[in-house]
Design a protein that fits this description.
Layout lengths: L5 H7 L3 E2 L5 E7 L3 E2 L8 E2 L2 E8 L3 E7 L2 E9 L2 E6 L5 E6 L8 E4 L4 E5 L6 E9 L7 E3 L2 H7 L4 H7 L3
Antiparallel strand pairs: 1-2, 2-5, 3-4, 5-12, 6-11, 6-13, 7-10, 7-12, 8-9, 8-11
Length: 163
């Protein structure tokens, strides 16, 4: 039997490095089009990716213009750190353990980052974005700007921002 470690899944699923950290591959992009309220622009209704983090790697603070749903598949528990628009912080565990959730919704505009708290092994998830993901609607946080907005979370921001 093949050991299903991070390297196995990266190769098996043909994952590539993601700018936020970790690895990903888009697996679905809807042919249906939708528009957001107050916009006439038509967007893909939904997209979905596989996403993998391993060991000490993490996903930096970022936000999207669309809602994102995360679904746990395999591996270690994953912590998703969320700062909402009012500055409220919460950490959500994505896992198949008693303390975890098999799915998590991140609302459009919320800053979030992810890590494997044990810093071991890997976590494999899927992420669905609706309306569909576009890199033009993806923003990686600037550390200094995020600290100005949410100084009460400086330590957390320093941990999950690299610029």
């Amino acid at each position: 039997m093949t050991t299903q470690n991070a390297a196995y899944w990266i190769e098996h699923l043909n994952l590539n490095r993601h700018p936020e950290g970790g690895y990903y591959k888009e697996i679905y992009r809807s042919d249906n089009k939708v528009s957001r309220q107050f916009s006439s622009e038509h967007k893909d209704a939904c997209t979905s990716i596989y996403y993998l983090l391993e060991g000490e790697n993490y996903s930096v603070f970022h936000r999207l213009l669309s809602d994102e749903l995360w679904y746990f598949h395999k591996g270690e528990p994953l912590h998703i750190h969320v700062i909402n628009n009012e500055g409220k912080y919460q950490v959500i565990e994505l896992s198949d353990t008693i303390s975890g959730n098999l799915s998590v919704a991140i609302r459009a505009g919320e800053w979030f980052a992810a890590e494997i708290p044990s810093k071991t092994d890997f976590t494999l998830v899927s992420c669905a974005v609706a309306p569909g993901f576009e890199f033009a609607e993806f923003e990686i946080a600037q550390k200094d700007e995020l600290i100005l907005l949410y100084p009460q979370h400086t330590a957390l921001i320093n941990k999950f921002c690299y610029r």
